[in-house]
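stuck on whats below:

***
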Amino acid sequence: MKKFNYLMLVLFAMMLSMSFTACSDDDDDDNTPKEEIHNVHYDIWVTLGETSGMGSSSSIIVKNVNSLEDPNQSIAFLNEGTDVTAKLYQESIIKGKYYYQIPKEKDRFGKYQITNNGIITIAEHKFEKNTYQDRRYTHAWTSDNEFVVLAANGDKNDVVWTKFNANDMSIVAEGNLNLPNFSPEVITYSTSGLANYRKADNTLIYLYCEKSKKGTKAVYAAFVDAATMTVKNVDKTTVGEEMGGTAYGELLQSKMFFNDNGNLYIPLMSQVPGSTTTTCGYTRIVRIMAGQNKFDTSWVGMNNGDRNGKVLTCENLGNGKALFYITNPEYTGTSDDNSKKDGWGITNYNSYYAIYDVNTDALTEITYNGQRLPFSAGTFSQRSFVLGNKAFIGTNPKDALPTIYIYNIKTGEVTKGSTIAEGYELSRIVYIDNE
């Protein structure tokens, strides 16, 4: 009997303790977003006096910093950071603490760390069967330790692929997709295309388009078994003429995103009617629903005319929202007509940041203290990323220093962060794991 009473007392005490703990949690739950802790530093990529990308000859300096949120911090580069120009390109695959790319030697893939004291070469492996041009390839991570690289072959009549072991850069397997069997009407394959990996069904989604002037203006999606690299299906859409990235993949800019439900959203570009160059473009957005091996024909985003500008970068913010960096000369005032080439280009301050709502198809420009963020120059750059509950957004304005703003995804609050010292063009910001 005493043993029974003792057990009852123990159980009662445990229940009481659990009750107090639950009440304490409820009292603390004021719906305030909890700050996530990430052991990272940030790499700031700048150029000397001109925007970079697409083979720019400008010197590139990279500096590691521990914070981007201090508004009193001016990030300087005079005798600080590492000049990577002689070895590395800005266009790179980034994961964890490493950069992966074809370096200036051009005959190999390599794995590198960039520190404030120089570049550390972790591993390099020369091409074997398949060869690639520097910066002109796309990629997708199929596991933490393996990624696949794809690009059009030398004759641009098919697409070749190579799987790499990310630990030592050894080649796991390589081959070609045999895409002419699925899209024989394609005359010339886009240089790299875009690739993304859908983990749920181990599918690699490879997007490509026709680059021949005599070919059909369409975008294709090849659904590839990531284990065997065999094509399961190919679908096409004529909603747009090409993807946001055709030559450089996502080596610098994020060109598509998965939402929380596993649906893939892809901005497509078409040439503005009446224009003389593909530089003058506008965006439509298509999607591939989770688990599907075809485009969703029931939905098109930004389907509102041909003067809405081009989406240059896009990142998922969750809850049906995405962060867009958009070039639009008419909207930013660098031209009175988007069909005219003069308002476009990397030197005009013709680009801005906005939040896109997938459900309402609305664009909302980001503001700070009631004012829009300054328009930026540089169409081949990536000055934004999402980390935890925050989006970090870098501007490259005309009449002020390059500045980083922080957008709180849960509250919508925008705060001002660090600036870049005078004389440098902000080209890229990334976060790098410290572990």
